[in-house]
Amino acid sequence: MFGCLGRIGCGLFLIILGAAGWATKDRWWPEVRRRLPIEVPARPPEATRVTVTVGGA
């Protein structure tokens, strides 16, 4: 359906949109974070270190 120029054009368009979104994220990212309340997970308990030796010593 698309020729080579059509595929390159679509890819270039997506790259430009991504770059524009990244460059202006300080404007829209706080609003996204406010609307989607994502809770920070609690820290898991500290794991104990287990040393494994060869020979069962």
Nutshell version of this structure?
By secondary structure, the chain is mainly alpha-helical. The chain has a domain of 25 residues. Helix content is 54%, strand content 0%.
Structure characterization notes:
The chain has 2 helices and no strands. It has a domain of 25 residues. With 57 residues, the chain is mostly helical. 54% of the residues lie in helices and 0% in strands. The termini are far apart.
* Binned strand content: under 5%
Largest sheet: none
Mean pLDDT: 81
The value of Rg in angstroms is: 24 Å
**End-to-end Cα distance:** 68 Å
Beta strands, count = 0
Count of discrete alpha- or pi-helical segments spanning 4 or more residues: 2
Q: Give unreliable regions as ranges.
A: none
Q: H/E order of the elements?
A: HH
The proportion of residues forming helix, as a percent range, comes to: 40-55%
Q: Which structural category do the helix and sheet elements fall into?
A: mainly alpha
**Spatial shape:** flat
Note the main attributes of this structure.
57 residues; mainly alpha; 2 helices
Topology:
Layout: H1 4-23, H2 25-35
